[in-house]
Amino acid sequence: MWLTATVRAPMDRTERQLLIRRGLIAVAVVVVVGVFAGSWYFSNVLRGDLLMPTPFTPDPTATVAAVGTGRIVLEPGPDAERDGVFGLVGPNGYAQVSNVLAANETGVERGFRLYDGVIEAGDEVAFDQYAYAGDPQLAHGIDYREIRFSGDLGQHPAWVVDGDRDTWVLVVHGKGLEERRQALRMIPRLHQEGYPVFVITYRNDTLAPNSEDGRYGWGFDEWRDIESAMFFAEANGAEDFVLYGFSMGGAISATYLHEADDLGRVRGVVWDSPVLDLEAVVDSGADDRSVPGFLTWVAKGMSAIRFGIDWAALDQVERADEFDVPILLLHGSDDATVPVESADQFAEARPDIVRYQRFDGVDHVLLWNADPARYEAAVMRFLADVTFQE
Hints:
Blueprint: H1 13-51, E1 62-68, E2 71-74, E3 86-89, E4 93-103, E5 108-117, E6 124-128, H2 136-140, E7 145-150, E8 155-161, E9 167-172, H3 187-192, E10 197-200, H4 223-235, E11 240-246, H5 248-259, E12 266-272, H6 278-288, H7 293-307, E13 327-332, H8 340-349, E14 354-359, H9 367-370, H10 372-386
C-alpha cells in the first residue's frame, strides 16, 4: 500500500499578519476584560471601605499577664509596648492604660485605671484609641445633655456639654457608627476652660436619619447636618463656633466651609488627622495592597461614575486657596490611613491661615494618646487666639 503525504503550501505574509492580528485582538480582549473585572472588583472594595457606614470595633491584640493596684502587666507585643494613653477593652470590663513604665522579654508594665467591670490575668484585650468609654458623665463625671436637633432628613442625636462662653466647639467625628466617643479625650479640658461642647451626629449615624443611598458623601451631603446643628446651637445661646473635625469629620467640615452661605459664625477650625485628599488615601491603600496603579486609576474612575465620588472636589490641597478661616492642623507622621503628605502640602500652601502641629512617629487619630499635654496645649492656645475679642 502506497502512502501519500499532503504537503501544505507555505503560509503567505497576508495569512501570517491575519493570524497575528487575531492573536493580538484576543490578547487585548483578555487584558481589557481582566482590567475591567479587576477594576470593578476594586471599586466595590472602595465602596465598602469608604462609603458604607460600619462600626469601629478594636480587635484584641494583647494578653493580660497580671493586674495590681494602679499597675497592669501585659505580655510583650506591638500594642502592649506602644507608649501613650489608651482604653483597654476586655471581655468583662473597660480600663485605661498610661505610658509604659517598664518592659522586658517577660512583660510590659503600664499605669492602669479600671473604669467598669473587671480586667483579669489571662484576658485578651483590645487597645481603644478613644481612651474613655460611655459618655461625658460616665467617662468624666461631667454633666451633659442628650439632645436632638432637626436636619433636612430628620432628627439627629447629639451631646451638649454646657459652658459659660458664647463660642461653641462643634465636634464632627470621623468615619464609623456612633463615634462621638472621639470627643471624650478633649471634653474635660474644653469644659474646664468654659467652652460649650456640641458633639453632633450626621446622616447614616446610629439613631440619625439615613440618606436615600445609605452611603457616606464625605461632606457633600453631611455638611448640611453641620449647618442644622448650628441653627440649634444659635437658638440655645451660641454666638459663634469653632469646628473640630476628626479624620472624615475634617473632610465634612471642609465641605461646609466651601458650601455654606455664611461663614461669619466660624472663628476657626481644628483638624485632627483630617482627610484632605481622599484620592491620596485610596492611592496609599492601593499601594499597601499591591494593586497596580493603572487598575487603581480605572477603579477610581468607575467609582466616580457608579457612586458619584467627585475626587477633585475632595482634594483640599488643590483647593487650599479657597479657605479663609484660621486652621489648626494636627497630623501624625506615621499615619498609615491618611498620608501625612497631604497635611504637609496643605500647610505649605496656606501658611497665612494654618497653624501646623506634626506629631513624629504617631499613627492615625492617636495624637492625643501619644502626647496629651502637647495636644491639649496646642488646641487651647489656638482657641484662645481665635476667640479673643478686643
